Amino acid sequence: MPDDRFADLGPQRKSAAERFQELDEREPEPQPRKPREPQRPGGRYGWVVGVAFMVVVVVAGANALRNSGEGYQGVPPGELLPPFAAPLAVGGPDDKDVNIAPKTACDVRGPGVFNICDERARRPLALTFVANASQGCEDQLDRVEAVRREFPQVAFVGVISKRERSDVEGLARAKRWGFPLVVDRDLALFNLYGIGDCPTTILARKGGIASASLRGRLDPARLRAELRKIAP
Question: Please, which residues have CB within 8 angstroms of residue 163's CB and are 6 or more apart in sequence?
Fold first, then answer.
């Protein structure tokens, strides 16, 4: 008998070697698909990070706009002047800051205190803001002094920001301006009233309703013309 272990496959059947060859030539069976990996948290919340970034950009741009002066336009016409109580440059306390709290500012009274709530109810107001008088823009207060006697029905007030009271007192005594000068050493009033230029003059009719916010230096003729609009 021939030594063929696979002879029983018969003449019509293929040998084992041919069968093995066919198996090798077959296309590989498809492998099961791997389950999809879960989405990473970073990708899921990426849009949140993007939105937060845009918010930061917008806020930064707004702050830059305000710091450039474009966002500070004073008190808009028709609005009530915000309440405050401030230490006077002459006779005021050295250790007190401006009170701008809406619920308590109008109740602060006493020697050495200027309360705008009282003044705005009595007559028209002209507030001239000067930030750090060492910059030289306090000469606007000289112009105010030059015209104030022509408008006795108007209350003139000077506001000097970013200076200690003792420094402002020395300036007031040297200049001898005939109107009260208040001290805003921590810039609370400067920011509350939206001051962008040094100087800025804010005018209000009796009752404290703002009429105009005039930025920059005003010559006496312009100042008189604006004061006539609020004087009765």
Answer: 132, 133, 134, 183, 185
Name residue, tokens 């400067």: 190
User: Count of CB atoms within 10 A of residue 204's CB?
Assistant: 27
Q: In what order do the strands lie in the sheet with 200-205?
A: 181-184, 155-161, 125-131, 200-205, 209-215
Angstrom distance (rounded) from CA 182 to CA 98: 9
Euclidean distance between CA atoms 194 and 189, whole angstroms: 8
Q: Measured between alpha carbons, how far is 218 from 216 in angstroms, rounded to an integer?
A: 6
- Report phi then psi at 196, rounded to 5: -115, -25
On the CB side of 137, CA atoms within 13 Å amount to 19
pLDDT at 186 over 50: yes
- So what's the pLDDT on residue 33? 61
Q: Per-residue pLDDT tens for 34-65? A: 556 555 545 444 434 344 444 333 334 434 33
d(CA 74, CA 90) in angstroms, rounded, equals 26
The b/e string for 70-98 (b: 16+ C-beta within 10 A; e otherwise) is: eebebbeeeeebbbbbbbbbeebeeebbb
Say how far residue 214 (Cα) sits from the centre of its chain.
Answer: 21
Q: In whole angstroms, what is the distance from residue 24 CA to residue 43 CA?
A: 44
